[in-house]
């Protein structure tokens, strides 16, 4: 008999754990419902009759309204369910107590302790380009320098982008802020900044935004003034590598900064991978560490749950501002705030943004939201931080790294090969994906459906500690490392 999972006792739909054919009986807890059509795994089946215009409940909350009457056993999806989201809203602060593990974890990892007390999970030389014109130059330097420095450091990597010239105002500031924050990252034992010379994103202005105490481990090069930019760049990398050489030191979970992200989600993401990652966020914050979440458009419909966990009224106001400001960003561009999920999400069983958001916010666990930071800014508080950034995988993951995340937990139901500046641990929402794409996936959260959350929690935490101590992720093995910058302004 096929199975389906009902998240909350009050839900009017359940998520199928198996493909079903019309007439198949589906077990939902102690109940059985008969499918009236073929329905794919990860999609929703109605558990009871739902009247037209009535709310459809999943996770104990409305995920939209029925656009037509729905009978028990029917497939509930885009043909009969529509979003209830509109524009900006007025919110009320209704504080809810945090719920964290009672005993902090004693897990440890071997990291690189920096002079300012932060701990990196890698000791690498990062080459940052100020402008797209020198992107290939930076990559050539990284390739040649990596062979020269060998295993003195964990690696030499170039992070390039097409921006930095023909940008104005806040758009240029965003590029500069991201680059400055990456230059301060604890996973970068040293940083080489490669510029062209005539770009808007001038090296001098960029260096002025980087704390002076970091300058000792940064070198800069203007290629228009260099006789042989690749040779000069390699020499500077070798100099940095010699200065950065240092051993790993055993530290506690409180020294980890965890970024959480989802991409290519399916109907099981909110049932397996995302809540599992939320448990990891809780373990880190309960131990005194830091977790950071973002993808602001993917909290629309679930934002009140986060707002109620604000540390105080001031943090609540900042969450409201970020959420409503992002909604206005959509409206100003003539787009509905509900312009999500993606085609892949829909194919995987997610119908409305409310449904996607209620599943996505679970990555943030249950801790108090202790701070809210803007795009490109760096984390300054222990606990759980909300970061302003869009849902785009590459843009938001780059922002997580720039904020100071030393590892990213990336959940996916459809799969993606992408990797980012810091170790990116790919977590499959279903065992089929993990089996089909072992070259992409680091952990199978589908095991939750067989072994339960406690066993999966322990296994994932062990995997995170191994990666933080130097074990490669799939993306690292594949050479998948990139950045993307949020482009919001005009281009000259």
TrEMBL record:
Against CDD domains, the record matches this protein to:
SAF_AH_GD
Domain SAF, chain residue ranges per copy: 11-82
GO BP terms: D-galacturonate catabolic process
Q: Does the keyword Lyase apply?
A: yes
Source species, domain of life? Bacteria
Q: Which GO terms describe its molecular function?
A: lyase activity
Could you tell me the keywords of this UniProt record? Answer: Lyase
Gene3D superfamilies assigned: 2.30.130.110
Q: Is Lyase tagged as a keyword? A: yes
What InterPro entries does UniProt report for this protein, alphabetically?
A: GD_AH_C, GD_AH_second, SAF, SAF_UxaA/GarD, UxaA_altronate/galactarate_dh
PANTHER family per record: ALTRONATE DEHYDRATASE, ALTRONATE/GALACTARATE DEHYDRATASE
To which protein family does this belong? Belongs to the UxaA family.
Protein name in UniProt: Altronate dehydratase
């Amino acid at each position: 008999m096929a199975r389906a999972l009902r998240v909350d006792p009050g839900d009017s739909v359940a998520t199928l754990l198996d493909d079903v054919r019309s007439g198949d009986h589906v077990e939902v807890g102690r109940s059985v419902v008969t499918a009236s059509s073929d329905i794919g795994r990860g999609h929703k089946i109605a558990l009871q009759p739902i009247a037209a215009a009535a709310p459809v409940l999943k996770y104990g909350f409305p995920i939209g309204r029925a656009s037509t009457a729905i009978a028990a056993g029917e497939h509930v999806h885009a043909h009969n369910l529509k979003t209830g989201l509109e524009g900006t809203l007025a919110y009320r602060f209704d504080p809810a107590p945090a719920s964290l593990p009672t005993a902090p974890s004693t897990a440890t990892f071997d990291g690189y302790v920096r002079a300012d007390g932060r701990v990196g999970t890698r000791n690498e030389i990062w080459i940052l380009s100020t402008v797209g014109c020198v992107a290939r130059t930076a990559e050539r330097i990284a390739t040649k320098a990596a062979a020269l420095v060998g295993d003195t450091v964990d690696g030499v990597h170039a992070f390039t982008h097409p921006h930095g010239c023909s940008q104005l105002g806040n758009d240029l500031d965003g590029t500069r802020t991201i680059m400055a924050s990456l230059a301060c990252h604890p996973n970068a034992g040293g940083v080489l900044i490669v510029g062209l010379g005539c770009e808007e994103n001038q090296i001098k202005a960029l260096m002025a935004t980087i704390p002076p105490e970091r300058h000792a481990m940064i070198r800069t090069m203007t290629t228009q003034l260099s006789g042989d930019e690749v040779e000069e760049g390699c020499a500077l990398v070798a100099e940095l590598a010699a200065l950065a050489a240092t051993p790993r030191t055993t530290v506690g979970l409180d020294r980890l900064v965890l970024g959480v992200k989802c991409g290519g989600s399916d109907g099981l993401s909110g049932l397996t991978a995302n809540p599992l990652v939320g448990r990891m966020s809780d373990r880190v914050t309960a131990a005194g560490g830091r977790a950071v979440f973002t993808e602001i458009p993917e909290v629309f419909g679930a934002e009140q749950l986060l707002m109620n966990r604000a540390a105080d009224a001031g943090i609540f106001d900042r969450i409201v501002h970020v959420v409503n400001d992002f909604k206005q960003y959509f409206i100003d561009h003539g787009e509905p705030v509900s312009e999500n999920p993606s085609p892949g999400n829909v194919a995987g069983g997610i119908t409305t943004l409310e449904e996607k958001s209620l599943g996505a916010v679970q990555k943030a666990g249950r801790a108090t939201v202790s701070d809210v930071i803007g795009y490109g800014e760096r984390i300054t508080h222990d606990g759980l931080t909300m970061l302003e950034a869009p849902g785009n995988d590459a843009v938001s993951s780059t922002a997580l790294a720039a904020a100071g995340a030393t590892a990213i937990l990336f959940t996916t139901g459809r799969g993606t090969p992408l990797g980012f500046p810091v170790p990116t641990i790919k977590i499959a929402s279903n065992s089929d994906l993990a089996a089909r794409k072992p070259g992409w996936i680091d952990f199978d959260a589908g095991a939750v459906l067989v072994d339960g959350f406690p066993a999966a929690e322990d296994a994932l935490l062990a995997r995170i500690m191994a990666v933080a101590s130097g074990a490669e992720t799939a993306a690292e093995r594949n050479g998948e490392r990139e950045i993307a910058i949020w482009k919001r302004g005009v281009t000259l």
